[in-house]
Structures are given as C-alpha cells and as structure tokens.
Amino acid sequence: MFIRLNILFFHSTVIYHLLSLLSERPPHLLSLLSERPPMAAANHSPSSPYSCGKDSGPVIPTTSLVTFLERIQETAFQTYERSKFDHKDFIDLSLKFDLSTTVKAFDEISKTENGSVSTKDFEEFIGKWFKSAGEDLVYVEPMDFETEPHGFLPKVENPEVRAWALEVHGLWKKLSREVSSSVHDHPELHTLLPLPVPGMIPGSRFREVYYWDSYWVIRGLLASKMHETAKAIVTNLISLLDTYGYVLNGARAYYTNRSQPPLLSAMVYEIYNRTGDVDLVKKALPALLKEYQFWNSEIHTMIIHDAENCNHSLNRYYAMWNKPRPEASAIDKRFASKFLNVNEKQKFYRELASTAESGWDFSTRWMRNPSEFTSLSTTTILPVDLNAFILRMELDIAFFAKIVGEDAIAEDFLTASHTRKKAFNSVFWNENMGQWVDYWLNYGAEPKEPQTWEAQNQNQNVFASNFVPLWIDLFNSDTPLVEKVTRSLQSSGLLCAAGIATSLTNSGHQWDFPNGWAPIQHMIVEGLWRSASIEARKVARDIAERWIRANYVAYKKTGTMHEKYNVEKCGEYGAGGIYRPQVSVGRMEWC
C-alpha cells in the first residue's frame, strides 16, 4: 500500500512550525481592527429524528464512471475480507478502455447471489480493465527543492533534532506529482480531476490534492523555502474554485458535492507574508470573493436572533449530496441499513457527507446521541471553528483588498468581520466555561427563518475546536480574554502527556479521545503564542514541546510519522476511524 507520506507532512509541517514558532511572531492582521470584544454569558441541545420532514436540499450529480466504480467497490466488499479491503482503492481506479465496454465485460462475470465473485476472477478483471489507483499521477521533481535550504529553521540548534527536521524536509521529493496527460486528454477515464500545475499530494490512500490539508502543506513548504511550490498549490485550488464555484474537498470527481474548511485566504496570506507577492494577491482576490459568496449562500447560512434583539448570520457545513459517499459507498450503505425509508437514508447520507466536509470525520461532536453513529446531525450545528475560519477569511480579504487598492471591498469586509465578532460573543461564547462552543439549531428550521438563541442549545461538551478561535488575531490580541481561555484549556481535561486531545469521549472515532491531530495543536499553540500573555505563551511552549517529543519518539520507533497520535502516551500513534491508521501525511509537515 502506497504510504500516505503527506501525513508526515501534515504533522511534520506542524513540527517545522512548532520548532520555529516560539522564536517568531508574524505581524497581525489586527492593524485593520482595534476594538476589544465584549463577552456574553451562557447548557446542551435538543434531540431530533431524521424522520421529520423531507430531504429537499441540493444534489450535485456525479459521473457515470463514479457510479460504475461504486459497483466495483461493492463487489470488492463482498469478495474480500474486511481487513484486506480499502474502499477508496476501487473508486480511484482509472479505465484502460471506454466505460461502456468495461461495464459490459463486468456484467458478464459470473457472480454469486450476494454479488461477490471469486477472488481470482475479480483480480483478473481488475488487472485487465483498469489501471492501478495512483497511475494517473506522474512524479515530477519539485522546482525549488534544496537538500538543506539556506536559512532553514535557523533557531533549531540541537544536531539530533535538526537532522530529524532535515529528514522530514527530504520527504517533499517523494510527494511531488502532476496529473498525467491522460487525465487532461481523456478525463472520462478517470475520477482524478485535471489540475494546471504540479503540486504535493498527501500520499498513501490519499492520492489527490485535499483542501484544508493544503494550508499546513504550504506552511511546511514555506519553512523549507519552497515558495514556488507553495504558490502552485494555491494555483491549483483557485483552478478548482473557478471551475466549480468553490474549492472541492479534494481533486476527485466524487468530491464535487462538498468543500472543506475554508482556508484558502489563510494560504494566500502566509505566502504573501513570506514573499510579498502582490501578483498572487491580485490573482487570488476575485477567487476569494467567489468562495466567500459560496460559504454565505442560503444552504450554508442560518440566522440566530439573540437576547439583545440582534440577528446574526452564521455558517454551517452542508454537503450537496444525499447518497452514499462514493469513496466509502459500501460502508455507508451498511450504516444506513437501519433506516426504514428512502427519506431517512437520504438525510443520513447528507449528514455523512456534511461531516466529511467539516474535516472532522468522524466525531461525537456531530452526533445527537454520542453512542449512536447514525445520529449524525452536522447540518443542524453552527460550528465555532468554521465560523472562525470565515472570520479569518473576512479579515484576509479586507487586508488583500487594501493592498490592491480596493478600498470599498476592504471597508465592506472589515464591517463583516466586526459583525461576525459580535456574533461570536452573542452565540458561541460561554462565560461559565471560558470557551466558545458549537451551537445546535432547532431541527427542521429553514435557513431564512431566524431562530431565537437559547442557552440550552450551546453544546457544553468539551472539544478542542472550542479553542480554535484563539488562532484569530481579533481574539488572541485581547489579553484578559486569552488568559481566561487559557485557564479553561488547562482545566478542560484536553491537555495530555503528548498534546491536546480532540475531545473527552473515547468513542472509537478518529476525531475523538485519545487522538490528537496536528492542525488542532498548531492553531491553538499559535493563537496562544501570538498573545501578549506570559502565561498563555508558557502553555503554548509546553504543548509544543509535548507534541514535538511525541512525534520524535514515534518517528524513532517506527521510522515514519503518523496521521494522528494517542496523546495519552508519548510516541504512540492514534487509532479509530473507518480506514487503517495512515503514516507520513503532508499536513504534519508543518506542525
């Protein structure tokens, strides 16, 4: 199995950053804003069945090839033992011949009543009619890779740690890919989407560009002085945005029905902050305005009427899909088998896809009943981190507009950021907890109908996402606020021997306890470190040291880095989820 090298980069990217972050402080976007947020006060949400109402949301149709590959995946599921089966391997296959001929040949294979075929017949068919998953990508030498770049992590003096960082840096060469000419010339034979320039892939079962992972990949590339490769990633994401109207979850035909946490503006900001490339800003600004419009479209926005008689427009995840996710179709169908009618199944499938859009797939955070996976209700939640990312987008767009002389746009987005900041205080902030928390919507509510804010609809369970707003300069610049949130983090139960746990619930899902993920460590550590609070900066350093130590110990034991770690035990990688734990992924590279 092709290793997910970019997992290494996800964590190693974060490693790069944590090795250097504690000695650097990038300029704030806060020069655009100065006022301090007032804080509001605030218990948990009502439950609701899928049986209420009909699923009438939008659906983006998929391709005939994806539909056929779902049949192949189902046959593989019936043919192989579960332990030897990765559903994604079969949806990523490309055709050697045209689709109709391949479908005809498949229909002629002898099958049992449950749809399985003999392993021999199935493997012969796959070998004859398909190219292996991953063959539609071609290795390309990174244009700006150097074995030891000048000025690489200058503050890291320990020779052993520096040698480790350089080993991690060397993995960029293994992850560089471009889309094959066949994808451009015969897109109907592939689920991989054409992209204009080479870039970095995560690796292993993740053979395509992913959206929010790319932010941490870019941070790692910038640490490695690979500025042109970082810009190329943004170019590819803008290409997807221009084609589809939003940045896809990933560059596959089966991902066209959803996005992922919107961090494109943050990517552009980091590159600009390092390079001063005004042309990149000029190219990106129209695309970012389009993305902002997507996230503020009717399906993604809900209105909350607060105690002070103000309406707040806030955002949610909402995938444009109500069928099994093609990349996990066989498994999704089995989960949905408990539902009795088509409408219930469609609602559940939309919740699955919307949870995947969040990047937190899966976690009890999204479940009405934490012990029941099929109670996923992501579309009825206003997630605090998603709204923090959109607040960051508003600030970034204002910053970029000012750079290129679009003063009216800058003013509009500064106003929008002020408005959203007030919403954070009214809707998400919980004074007793000292955290920002997700808000549960009343089930069945329509986007155009304001809902009255209720304290009981705040999700008072502790998740690492409750602390993500610290990453935004509007919040980390408020020292009293930061110190209150820091004390809350310290007493939350999330801080463990090897880093920050994702939640306090050991559910077996990969975005729950005891797993820790690189993006969470990075955003919280960077937010604490950017503050003026001595205590917050001490906590940031302590978390960074724990995380770096855990990554290093695991690397020495296993020879690689891992997608997630067990934060209870230093050097032990994480588990859980519907696929096998992955190693060496790009977003790690910068943490």
From TrEMBL:
<comment type="similarity">
    <text>Belongs to the glycosyl hydrolase 37 family.</text>
</comment>
<dbReference type="GO" id="GO:0004555">
    <property type="term" value="F:alpha,alpha-trehalase activity"/>
</dbReference>
<dbReference type="InterPro" id="IPR018232">
    <property type="entry name" value="Glyco_hydro_37_CS"/>
</dbReference>
<keyword id="KW-0378">Hydrolase</keyword>
<dbReference type="GO" id="GO:0005993">
    <property type="term" value="P:trehalose catabolic process"/>
</dbReference>
<dbReference type="Pfam" id="PF01204">
    <property type="entry name" value="Trehalase"/>
</dbReference>
<dbReference type="InterPro" id="IPR001661">
    <property type="entry name" value="Glyco_hydro_37"/>
</dbReference>
<dbReference type="InterPro" id="IPR012341">
    <property type="entry name" value="6hp_glycosidase-like_sf"/>
</dbReference>
<dbReference type="InterPro" id="IPR008928">
    <property type="entry name" value="6-hairpin_glycosidase_sf"/>
</dbReference>
<protein>
    <recommendedName>
        <fullName>Trehalase</fullName>
        <ecNumber>3.2.1.28</ecNumber>
    </recommendedName>
</protein>
<keyword id="KW-0326">Glycosidase</keyword>
